[in-house]
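Field reference: sequence -> structure
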Amino acid sequence: MSTVELIFAALSLLLTILILSYLVLGDNPMFRFAAYAFIGVAAAYVVLVTFDQVLWPKLIQPLINGTMERRILLATPLLLCLLLLAKLFPGISRVGNVPMAYLVGTAAAVTIGGALMGTLLPQSLATASLFDLSSNPAVESVGVGGVLVDAVYILAGTLAVLLYFYFGTKSRPNQPARQPGWIEKIGKAGQFFIAITFGALFAGVYTAAVTALIERVSFLVDFFRQLGI
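Structure field:
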């Protein structure tokens, strides 16, 4: 092991011990130091990548060496960036509302479009394709009955979850607005499917955490083994 590798390994060992101190001492200054160092390094990395991959090649360099048409096209995003900096100063912070509104509107449009085209429609098509017995390869292994049971189960779960997030209500005189009773009942079934999903997600996160812990412990063992300890 070279000197440079030894220094980086020792630093990794120190940070690993500082992070693992949370398991014994709980929230302590050593753990907070390691967490702050990680946040600082991650923030610096994001800033450098943003400057190297976005600001310099797509804004600064075209403004310096680009054509006049290119500079005019870049004037609008540059102006919005400058207006956004006004949010740092309370006296002129209202000027930054224009780029903020643009960012919020764009983000909302991208989110809605992504949810519709990337989740809702594919989920609907995938659920409908389960009933296409002619192209379902699972028919040969579990039979038509098994495929239909799975398809109905998935369809019922999908509808129950969607109805759980149904926020439409019926207004009644002198009474608080309530959802129809049948929607509330199906929505409770949707809670069951949501609980299963969150359980699976938690199991995945827990497995990833345990895997990371095993990797760090293995690193410690290998480090001390190379030092002959």
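Note: The chain has a mean pLDDT of 83.
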